[in-house]
Design goal:
Length: 430
Amino acid sequence: MRKSDSEAEAPSTSGTGEQIAVDSSRRPLGWFWSGRFASAFGSALTTLIAPYYLAVVLHLDAVAVSLVMAGPVVATLLSPLYAGIIADSVDRKLLTISCDFLQFVLLVMLGAITLWGPDGLLPFGIANFLLAIVSSVSAVGLMAGFPDIVGEDRLHAGNARLQTFNTIAHSAGGLSGGAVMSFLGPFTALIVNSLAYLMSSVSLLFTRWPNAKPHTVGKNKEPYMRRVAHGFVLVRKKPLLLVLVMTSTVANFFITLSAVALLWLLVREIQLPYFMYVLILSIGSLGAAVGATLSFRIASWTGSNQRAQLLSLSLYAVLLAGYTLLDGTGVATVIFAAAVDFGVGFVVSVYIVNNAVQQQVLVPSTDRGSVGAVRSFGSALAGVLGTASSGVLIALFTGRGTVVFCAIGLAMVALRFTFHVFRRAEVLDS
């Protein structure tokens, strides 16, 4: 018999067969949220500082910068080999505290290496690679324990707040990172960056984290490769979970591709001044924060997380198509582009929050690390493919044509995956 939407979205167990203590609405989480903001701010700075240092300070060519920055991408793609296994095998609170502290140490080391100049390029690349490995483990461990921290009865509110904090912190980090690099230099910028992770580590130390240690700790004697494959096997065996992971992976491909295409369309083809482009992106970030805040209301209005995801992906496709109407550099063009970007940010946040909530509901607590690593792998793969294909597609179809391609692709994702497949998968998972 098929479950109702309310039954599917409000589970009464934690995944271990024990009843949830549903009093998480009064759980003090001030330390946790301050740490999440600091971590997201640090992540934004890290993303900006490393390529800026390599390209602007060391004056490396594009090939050399790409080789050094390929390390973090490879580390994330390989995360199913280590991150999920670790997150499901040890105390997750101790793991994430240790990882954030290690990120603090590695960033201090990177800062010191910048004082060596070009002679420190190899150590810089190695430290940057290790930083990505530690970051992957920290992210998977944190998201595996996220439902335990915020309470499974408050997953939607918790994910909405997390998305809001991430949006604000990434915007603040992106805007301040350039100023810090320009006026203070790479060494000071990386020290400031490291302090964000130190704050995150300290905040987790004071965060109440129930069930931080999965009950499988010390009991899983399966061969290593079987444990590596466990997340993929679990995703494949749960039709609805498979649809959610596949949908988010394909959607991330088009989101990454459209971001590059929109930059080319607005700055190169329409020739908007760069500060106008940054202003439009800021309006989009505001839309993302509003979308995250209202994501639960939209899910309630549509009747389920699945319908909210379908609606947001469909609207995203329509809004992308709206960009193709832009022409000229006048005030009307900027206002229209800002309005469209606000809408894009809004619907993307609604999709991200509802997709995350449903995946967290479907996965038992003991397996969230393995499945989280699979999600990280899919997201990283989509990002690599989206970025790598952007240049070819823009060269063939122009920025405007590539945006249209992304709009069509997202519409197909919404209709094919989210509509037809969701209905079949819901029945199979019931």
